[in-house]
Amino acid sequence: MAVALTPAQKLFGWYTRKNPVDLWLELLRHAEAFEDWEEAALHLDNLLGLDLWRNNPTSKYYDWRLITERLNSLAVAREEHDFQQLVNLLRSGLVRNLGNLTVPKLYNRSFSGTKYLIEEYITQVAETVEDISTLPASASAGVQSIGGSLTNQMKLDFIHDTRQAFGRSSLVLQGGAIFGMCHLGVVKALFLRGLLPRIITGTGTGALIASLVAIHTEEELPGVLNGDGIDLTAFNSRAKLSNGMSDSPQTFRSRWNTLMRRLRRFSREGYFLDVSVLEDCVRANVGDLTFEEAYNYSKRILNITVATEGQGGVPTLLNYITAPNVVSTLAKRKRVTR
Questions:
Q1: Residue 67: in which H helix or E strand, if any?
Q2: Do both 312 and 199 map to the same domain?
Q3: Is 93 within the bounds of a domain?
Q4: What DSSP string runs through 293-327?
Q5: Is the dihedral of CA 108, 112, 117, 118 positive or negative?
Q6: How large is the greatest C-alpha to C-alpha distance in the chain, in angstroms?
Q7: For residue 199, what are the β-bridge partners?
Q8: Where does the PNPLA domain lie (predicted)?
Q9: How many domains does the chain fold into?
């Protein structure tokens, strides 16, 4: 049975109804999965006309003509199976900031991404590298392409030289409590999309999260990223001991005692967190693995930076090469306390 609304009710409903932009912004902020975030971002771009900006390749911030030319050259060479030309194109153009591709202003305009031309070029380059690396041995050794043949040794040299020139990406997790709360979410989103680098660098609180991620294999990470594989009992036990509490809920008095305890610690020692609690937490989750042992187990590279004394000092980088026998727990403790 339909109910007729009065003019006043219609006016009130129209007035209280959320603007579509505000609605999608709220969904964007509270998205719990990349797919939800992407859907909200695409709707926002459509509502605000930013999809037109993405479709238009021209911009003063990067050399769009160069990118267009190289994109067309890659497409033609791939279509003609000209592997030698593909190798030459990648050798000459596989640099991180080709034509100013990494200018921040190209990535701060739209919610969902940058220019479609840039995204298409990056996709084309990635697919080209994949084509060359998966080229069958028979085709590499014997089948002549338009641009000549590629032997297995030529493929190996190409991949090695390209990797050396392009470098390897690392996920850097910064310090600070606010950043620390976001680190696991960022790592989880990258992992689920297959984009998590094998090199993870941590500084400050980020060193703890970096170690939790870097010591686990691909099969173990889902449980860790869901929170099931993280042991936080060290914090709960110390809080109850300090406040003389059991499992009763926190009160104003207990929170006040915690605040005063941290302020006294900061005035005496220069930091808020109880380092011994953090060390217990790290040891409960990481154990006494050295950098080399962690690398041999997970094949992920854990980097932890430690600041040197005095102003202008160069930070020390600890990993399985520079400090293979150092226990990563001690390195993380030293990094957080500085």
A1: helix 64-79
A2: yes
A3: yes
A4: HHHHHH-PEEEEEEPPSSTTPPPEEESTTTSTTSB
A5: positive
A6: 81
A7: 170, 301
A8: 171-338
A9: 2
Q: How far apart are CA 286 and CA 275, in angstroms?
A: 16
Together in a domain, 161 and 174: no
Residues of the chain predicted below pLDDT 70: 1-17, 137-149, 176-181, 228-229, 232, 234-256, 258-259, 261-263, 265-279, 309-313, 328-338
Please tell me the distance from the alpha carbon of residue 188 to that of residue 247, in angstroms, as a whole number: 31
Amino acid at 320: Y
Q: Which amino acid is at 27?
A: L
C-alpha triplet 322, 328, 332: angle, nearest 5°: 105
Distance, in Å, from the CA atom of 167 to the CA atom of 182, rounded to the nearest integer, reads: 26
Domain boundary among 117, 148, 165: 165
Report the predicted TM-score, pTM, of the whole model to 2 decimal places.
0.74
Residues sharing a CB contact under 8 Å with residue 222, sequence separation 6 or more, in sequence order:
191
| Spatial distance between the Cα atoms of 71 and 301, rounded to a whole number of angstroms | 33
pLDDT digits (tens, 9 = 90+) for 82-107: 888 999 999 888 888 999 999 999 99
Instruction: Sort 39 into a burial class: Cβ within 10 Å, 0-12 / 13-18 / 19+.
Output: middle
Domain hosting residue 151, numbered range: 64-165
Residues 177 and 258 in one domain: yes
Q: Of 135, 165, 195, at which residue does a domain stop?
A: 165
Residues 239 and 299 occupy one common structural domain: yes
Nearest residue to 290 via CA among 253, 233, 332? 332
Are residues 253 and 120 located together in one domain of the fold?
A: no
Q: Is 118 part of any domain?
A: yes
In which order are the strands placed within the sheet that holds 301-306? 170-173, 199-202, 301-306, 316-318
Looking at the fold, whether 318 and 176 belong to one and the same domain comes out as: yes
Q: Are residues 147 and 295 in the same domain?
A: no
What pLDDT, in 10s, does the model give residues 239-270?
Answer: 555 545 445 555 666 666 766 766 676 666 55
Determine the Cα–Cα distance for residues 313 and 218; give it in Å rounded to an integer: 36
Residues 330 and 182 in one domain: yes
